[in-house]
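F.,

This is the one I mentioned.
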């Protein structure tokens, strides 16, 4: 009896081995019964396409890949062979910080973002739809987006234009500031350009007060000080009369027969910048001082601009004078503007003095038109010179006072 049971067990074992050998001998289409789950996140662009010979699990069946493909669904018989019912192969969770489900991470990022929350703390790095809507909504005022103590970002920011709201109801809108490559513009809430700034100056654009401030080459470290008083600020060109220069020290002594300047140190300016002259601009010059000379000696007084004569007494033959007073008064007016040959300046004046005999006054009046060398497009600097035409060691002339005023 025991022998029969033993033979039966042996027969059963041989039969089992036969089944195993049979299974092992079958083609591989019948062998795989388990596989990882199919996913559409397999493509050539991502570097992980399905390749021939790959097995996947899909809807309870195991499929074998026949041809390389980019995530084509396994029910497509051109690319997949259905091997029959099978089982899902257990696999490790692939997502970081996942709490459930099967997740597929393709090309997991290695760089963190510039956002405050980039997911490193385990929370969602994504912006919700409500948060996006709130961010895109037009703020009513800065208090809605800024809190006390907020600071601007440290990196460079580029803004196309800035709107300055004051009334949201039509037809009003907002004033704004914007710029191009050369200027910054200020626009009113009615859409009118009001003001602009560039490297060459400022300009008011809105008529009727369109006006410009042009920047000239300026000396560094200049300071303008406003008096603590009410008043009116005006351009010199709009003021009819004002002082230009006042001599504060005696002028140089002119002797011999070499032409010399009579102007001494003082305050103000004797120059007019290019293109600042206007037709009708008129000036008054007054000069006085002391003179000594031998009888019948000759003298010439000249007014010059940039070395060119704009007025002259001509040759004066003087009686004897010893430390006597003299005075030159002259007026000159701009008649025409332009370059040399086009501009025109009219000058008239008189030169008077006391002579030794009876301390009597003598003098000469003169008139002069300059239309050859006078040029209003360049810097013009005034000079007053004296030249003795007679060589005598006692001849001398100098100034005590000189003032220049614009009278129109």
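My design for it:
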């Amino acid at each position: 009896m025991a022998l029969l049971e033993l033979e039966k067990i042996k027969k059963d074992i041989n039969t089992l081995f036969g089944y195993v050998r049979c299974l092992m001998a079958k083609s591989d289409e019948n062998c795989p019964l388990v596989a990882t789950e199919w996913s559409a996140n397999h493509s050539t662009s991502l570097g992980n396409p399905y390749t021939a010979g790959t097995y996947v699990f899909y809807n309870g069946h195991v499929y074998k890949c026949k041809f390389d493909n980019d995530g084509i669904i396994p029910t497509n018989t051109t690319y997949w062979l259905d091997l029959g019912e099978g089982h899902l192969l257990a696999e490790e969770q692939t997502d970081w910080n996942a709490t459930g489900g099967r997740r597929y991470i393709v090309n997991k990022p290695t760089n963190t973002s510039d956002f405050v929350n980039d997911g490193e703390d385990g929370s969602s790095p994504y912006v919700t739809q409500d948060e996006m809507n709130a961010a895109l909504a037009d703020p009513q005022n800065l208090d809605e987006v800024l809190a006390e103590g907020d600071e601007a970002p440290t990196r460079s920011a580029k803004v196309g234009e800035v709107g300055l709201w004051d009334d949201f109801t039509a037809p009003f809108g907002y004033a704004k500031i914007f710029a191009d490559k050369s200027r910054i513009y200020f626009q009113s809430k009615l859409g009118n350009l009001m003001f602009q700034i560039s490297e060459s100056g400022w300009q008011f654009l809105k008529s009727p007060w369109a006006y410009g401030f042009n920047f000239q080459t300026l000396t560094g470290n200049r300071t303008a000080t406003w008096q603590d008083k009410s008043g009116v600020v005006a351009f010199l060109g709009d003021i009819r009369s004002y002082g230009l220069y006042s001599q504060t020290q005696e002028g140089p002594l002119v002797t011999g027969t070499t032409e010399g300047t009579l102007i001494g140190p003082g305050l103000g300016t004797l120059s007019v910048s290019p293109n600042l002259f206007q037709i009708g601009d008129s000036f008054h010059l007054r000069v006085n001082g002391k003179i000594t000379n031998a009888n019948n000696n000759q003298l010439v007084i000249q007014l010059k601009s940039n070395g060119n004569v704009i007025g002259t007494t001509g040759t004066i033959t003087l009686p004897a004078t010893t430390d006597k007073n003299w005075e030159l008064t002259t007026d000159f007016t701009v008649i025409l503007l332009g370059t040399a040959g086009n501009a025109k300046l009219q000058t008239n004046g008189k030169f008077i003095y006391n002579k030794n005999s009876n301390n009597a006054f003598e003098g000469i009046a003169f008139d002069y038109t300059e239309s050859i060398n006078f040029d209003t497009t360049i810097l013009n600097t005034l000079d007053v010179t004296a030249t003795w035409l007679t060589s005598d060691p006692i001849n001398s002339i100098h100034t005590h006072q000189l003032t220049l005023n614009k009278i129109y």
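The domain at 32-88 is CATH 2.10.10.20 (Seminal Fluid Protein  PDC-109 (Domain B)).

Talk soon.
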